[in-house]
């Protein structure tokens, strides 16, 4: 299958360039404000290593995120088949693309359990904030979507909305919209579906410069997609700006507010249902219908526990992720200092804060490392 790349609403990038990261509203601003890394970096005398660049891989559950990363680094990420996200944590896979080193981040997917959206957003955001605070370069986001899905599902819709709010308009040129599972295809139907995607759901992103790829499942094309993003300037996402420069809580960010309002809606419905069942139980008890009262009590327990889970999800969004991340970075620095040691790269600190390094598997490829995020 041939690689299709469209460049709309912007010039075709021809060479690597470094530029100030844009804000979500088009202003330029300091990438890290009072850059904690600069201060820590000076005292630690760190070197800036070329490996300190990240690419996020995102998409709903089963869209092929782990598969994509496994093409770049065989057997590094857990692939799955279920409706619930196989990848419950972020995983970082370091790999070389030609002469360039890049850390790929496998993120948990938004799945059919809406309840997990807040947790998933929290995990992704924590990682993005750590990357931003450490001054690690973010080169782009790969957004995966299954071309064999017959419709744009509820989770795909929710994810797309949140995704757009996480990224913001100025990050759009750093987004690669990638359709997967072409090899499983009746090709003609999938080509039509791809056109529909581009003309409807993705039209806005494409008109503002997002890249498009039909992924054939190969390592070669995975490298091409990553290489293309690497040519883009470094990017600061809207949610990073809102958390770290505007000091918002997660629920105050545009993406967090979106998830939060969905939780509130569900809470209102559940409250109403719980009230109604409780009334029915009173009625059943009054009329001496013990069997009905018993059944209703079971229903009440189920709805109450659903309500509790929603309420807990709402709490997830109240986190001050930027401040928490700052404290964790400081703790990591202090711990190292107390041992009389020094950090050797930003990614090492990143690992210390967001997860633990999984040793590379026995493989001939020596340039790969995998980190698992908390
Ligand atoms: N043929 C083919 N199979 C794929 C492709 N991408 C993923 N798969 C398969 O589809 C299934 C789901 O892929 P995963 O990579 O686990 O999906 P994921 O997005 O990581 O899912 P979660 O971690 O659950 O969010 C796995 O069995 C993969 O082997 C592709 O491009 N082509
Ligand atoms: Mg996965």
UniProtKB/TrEMBL annotation:
UniProt entry tagged with the keyword Protein transport: yes
Signal peptide: none
Location (main, coarse): membrane
Region (Disordered): 303-337
Ranges of residues in domain G: 55-117
A Gene Ontology BP annotation from the UniProt entry: protein transport
GO cellular component: membrane
GO molecular function: GTP binding; hydrolase activity; metal ion binding
Membrane topology note: Single-pass membrane protein
Domain of life: Eukaryota
Gene3D superfamilies xrefs: P-loop containing nucleotide triphosphate hydrolases (3.40.50.300)
Biased composition (Basic and acidic residues): 304-321, 328-337
Cofactor(s) of this protein: Mg(2+)
Localization per record: Membrane; Plastid, Chloroplast outer membrane
UniProt KW keywords: Chloroplast, Hydrolase, Magnesium, Membrane, Metal-binding, Plastid, Plastid outer membrane, Protein transport, Transmembrane, Transmembrane helix, Transport
Protein name: P-loop containing nucleoside triphosphate hydrolase protein
Organism: Lophiotrema nucula
